[in-house]
Design a protein that fits this description.
With 270 residues, the chain is of the alpha/beta class. It has one domain: Rossmann fold (3-Layer(aba) Sandwich). The chain is built from eight helices and nine strands. A five-stranded mixed beta barrel has the order 5-8-7-6-9, surrounded by four helices. The radius of gyration is 17 Å and the shape is globular. Bound molecules: hypoxanthine. The site of hypoxanthine has 14 residues, from β5, β8 and β9.
């Protein structure tokens, strides 16, 4: 595994002169941000040695090096989900490669079902913490030398980034909410009883990604920041039928606001 990671990182290093320290995972709803990146180099996942290939509709599968908010970034257009059948090692492979490439900051986005009773569809939720409810742990197996066997998780989502995001949202008049993201395997959306359970457990939103990538990034010492777009509600009395198309539509509508926060944050930190 380590050999594959190093081989992939070396291939990338040989194919671009760009050396960003910030990476962005463009999940559901943030795909359009890719169009705002001034591209230096872009590699379809299929061209990159050892890289998995993404299969789900709405994720096109490209590693982009370019300028965003005036800073060099590495952007993953399309991520790998556990529900697609990838192992946790495959889901988090790009994060391991990012570490080898010298990435220090990771920004992630996702679509999620809101469980906090005050949340509304279209809300942007700054992720303050998470609950890992995936059936397999991404750090399961021999420990990688990037971090300790038993990693501390007391501050997984960087507080300084959260403060900056709050300030940016206030300055620009963008409404944000905050909360705990519960990461589940999917691919089913939740039953009303499951939403209730995740809410009782302490979750504010639930989705099918992010947690594995963030855990591995954290283990690599990469500072992380994440936003969920609330695309549907898992709140008692407000639960209606939900589809992938609706999730994408709801996410699309607030894309520009989310992009604004990411762009400003990148501009201020890198
Ligand atoms: N549940 C799980 N994943 C999701 C949801 C949801 O309600 N909405 C968007 N992704």
């Amino acid at each position: 595994m380590l050999e594959q990671i190093k081989e992939t990182a070396q291939w990338i290093t040989e194919h671009t002169t760009s050396r960003p320290t910030t990476a962005v995972i463009l999940g559901t709803g943030l795909g359009r941000l890719a169009q705002e990146i001034e591209i230096i180099d872009a590699f379809p996942y299929s061209e990159i040695p050892n890289f998995p290939i993404s299969t789900v509709e709405g994720h096109s599968g490209k590693l982009i090096f370019g300028l965003l908010g005036g800073k060099e970034v590495l952007a993953m257009q399309g991520r790998f989900h556990f529900y697609e059948g990838y192992s946790m090692k495959q889901v988090t492979f790009p994060i391991r490669v990012m570490y080898e490439l010298g990435i220090k900051n990771l920004f992630v986005s996702n679509a999620a079902g809101g469980m906090h009773p005050d949340f509304e569809i279209g809300d942007l939720m700054l992720i303050t913490d998470h609950i890992n409810f995936f059936p397999e742990h991404p750090l399961n197996g021999p420990n990688f030398p990037t971090g300790p066997r038993f990693p501390d998780m007391s501050e997984t989502y960087d507080r300084a980034f959260l403060d900056m995001a709050r300030a940016i949202a206030a300055e620009k008049g963008i409404k944000v909410v905050e909360g705990v993201y519960v990461g589940v395997q999917g691919p089913t959306f939740e039953t009303p009883a499951e939403y209730r359970m995740y809410r009782i457990m302490g979750g504010d939103a639930v989705g099918m990604s992010t947690v594995p990538e963030v855990i591995v990034a954290h283990h690599c010492g990469i500072r992380t920041f994440g936003i969920s777009i609330i695309t549907d509600l898992g709140v008692e009395g407000k639960i209606v039928e939900v589809s992938h198309e609706e999730v994408q539509r709801a996410a699309n509508e607030v894309q520009p606001l989310m992009a604004e926060i990411f762009r400003s944050l990148i501009n201020r930190i890198a």
